[in-house]
Every structure is written in C-alpha cells, then in structure tokens.
Design brief:
0% strand; 2 domains; mainly alpha; Tetracycline Repressor, domain 2; Arc Repressor Mutant, subunit A
C-alpha cells in the first residue's frame, strides 16, 4: 500500500470514528449536550482534527442523519419485499418504521428533529420522503384494487404518515404523560381502519 492510500485510509478511519463517537455520546448524554470538544476528547484527538473532517457540529449531525435514513430505507424495503398484497405491504412497512423508531431512538430524534433542531433541513428531501413515498405507492395500489378514487391516494397517504409519525413522537417525547393504552395496538388499529377506509 502506498503512502497516499495509507493516508486516505487513515483519514476515512478518523472520519468514521468521529461519527461513531458522536453517536455514542448522543446515546449516553443526549443530542443537546453534544459538542466538538466532547467528540475530540472521545476520539482522543484535538478539536482541530475534528474540524479537518467536518466544518462544524451541524455537518456531523447531517452525516449521522443520512446514515439513519439509509438504515431506515433498508428496513422498509426488507419489510415490503416479504409480502405480495399492497395491504400486507402497507402494514409491514408501517411496522418496520415503528420498530426502527423505537430501536433507534437517537437516530429517529435526530432525523426528524424531535426535541432539537432538525439536521440538514431541505437537504434530505429524497431520504426524508422515502417512507411517505412507499405509503403512497401501497395506498394507490389498494385504492385501484378497490376501484376507489385514485385522486385520494396522496392526501390519504399523507394522513397516515402524520398519524404514524405523530403517535411515535408523542410516545417518544411525552411517554410519562400519555395513557398506557396508547401503544402499538393503537397503531395497528389505525392502519387497519385506514386500509378499510380506502
């Protein structure tokens, strides 16, 4: 391996380490307490080394958000491919989204700006809308199958996204204040009622 390749590999390693340690800090201390200084201490380098790889903390958060959206997309596609009918696909997609949110709480909070400023605003339209797009496709297919008005697919799928994301957000951010009956069963009933209403 040449000197240039070795330096490039070292640079990529430090960059990956910065992202991993930033995420680890967020898991233990929360996103609000994250700072360049803490990241530098965690990777055992000086702050200027972090700035060599990322312009600022926002750039680090943006990169972590992208990682989160890519992981979510993988899980959604996996869930979708396991089923044939649009009804089963829709249910599986929503289930995978729910599971991802609660198994990856720190990612979800950062990706959607829960309790903090949303990272990469306006820069992740494709990643941000992947779940909504999948909901729309399944919704349209169900509507066409039932012979309903296809013009309603966009509005209906947005309504479902709002319901799913809203329930997750409430449970994630206000868990101590909400009744114990608001849980996955509520989500399942919402999806079932949604499919019947199309």
């Amino acid at each position: 391996m040449g000197l240039h390749e070795r330096r490039q590999r070292e640079k990529e390693s430090i960059r990956a380490n910065i992202l991993q340690e930033a995420f680890n800090l967020a898991k233990t201390e929360g996103w609000a307490s994250l700072s360049i200084r803490k990241i530098a201490d965690a990777i055992e380098y000086s702050a200027p080394v972090v700035y060599d790889h990322f312009e600022n903390k926002e750039a680090i958060l943006y990169e972590i958000s992208l990682n989160g959206f890519h992981q979510l997309q993988i899980e959604l596609l996996k869930a979708q491919k396991k089923h044939e009918t649009p009804e089963d696909q829709l249910t599986a997609i929503v289930d995978a989204y729910w599971k991802f949110a609660f198994e990856n709480k720190e990612y979800y909070q950062l990706m959607f700006g829960l309790g903090m400023q949303c990272s990469g605003k306006g820069l992740m339209k494709e990643e941000f809308s992947s779940f909504q797009d999948m909901l729309y496709e399944s919704t349209l297919e169900i509507i066409n199958k039932k012979g309903s008005n296809p013009d309603n697919a966009c509005h209906s799928s947005h309504a479902l996204f709002s319901a799913v994301h809203g329930l997750i957000s409430i449970m994630m951010m206000r868990n101590a204040d909400i009744p114990s009956t608001m849980n996955k069963t509520t989500l399942d009933e919402t999806v079932s009622a949604f499919i019947k209403s199309l």
